[in-house]
Amino acid sequence: MPAAAKHPLFMHPETALLNNCLLVGAALFGLGAIGFLSRRNMIVMFLSVEIMLQGASLSLAAWGRFHNDFGGQTFVLFVIAVAASEAAVALALILTLYRRRCSLDVAAWHFLREADQPPFRDAPLPDEPAVGEPDPPLAPAGVRPRRPEEESQWRPEI
Amino acid sequence: MSNPQILMLSAFLAAVAIWLMLPRGGARGRWAGAALGAAALGLWLSRTHGLGHWTADGVFYALAAAAIVSAVGAVTSPNPIYCAIWFGMTLLAVAGLLLLVGAQFLAAATVLVYAGAILVTLLFVLMFAQPEGRATCDRVSWEAGLSAAAGIALVGILSAAVGSAVSPTIAAQSPQALAAGVLDPRQTARLGEELFGRRLIAVEVVGTLLLAALVGAAVIVNRFGGRRRDDQKS
Question: Predicted ipTM?
Answer without folding.
Answer: 0.90
